[in-house]
Amino acid sequence: MAVLIHFLWEHQELEQKVEYWMEKYDKDVEAKQHELDVLKASKAKDLERLQELTKLVRGKFFTFSVGTTCLICKQNSVSLRTSPAFYFSCPSVRRVRAGGGGGPGG
Predict the structure, then answer these.
(1) pTM higher than 0.70
(2) Same-domain pairing of 31 and 75
(3) pLDDT of 19-78, one tens digit each?
(4) In terms of domains, do 20 and 49 share one?
(5) 42: domain range?
(6) What is the pLDDT of residues 35-46, one digit of tens each?
(7) What is the domain count for the chain?
(8) Rounded distance between C-alpha atoms, residue 4 and residue 81, angstroms
(9) For residues 20 and 45, what is the distance between their CA atoms, to the nearest angstrom?
(10) At a CB cut-off of 8 Å and minimum separation 6, what does 94 contact?
(11) In sequence order, what DSSP letters do the residues of 12-43 get, joined into one string?
């Protein structure tokens, strides 16, 4: 009889531990889900801001102009950039910058 009482007492103790750990698990999962939701919202907001800034930067520095003429080699191009980077995208300018001549009189 004493052995039975001991097993019943131990069983009850184990049930309490299982219940404690199940509740802890549920709370931890809920907390992590909340953290994940906050991070996803933050990521979406950051992505939206990045896209806005990208549009702003592209609008200011990467304006494309049809029929733009390179000031170095005097060649026309449909897709050359009108920003300062445009002049370094021209093959003639790249040769001049590398010390290889090119361009008018070069």
Answers:
(1) no
(2) no
(3) 999 999 999 999 999 999 999 999 999 999 999 888 888 777 654 444 556 555 666 554
(4) yes
(5) 1-61
(6) 999 999 999 999
(7) 2
(8) 88
(9) 38
(10) 88, 102
(11) HHHHHHHHHHHHHHHHHHHHHHHHHHHHHHHH
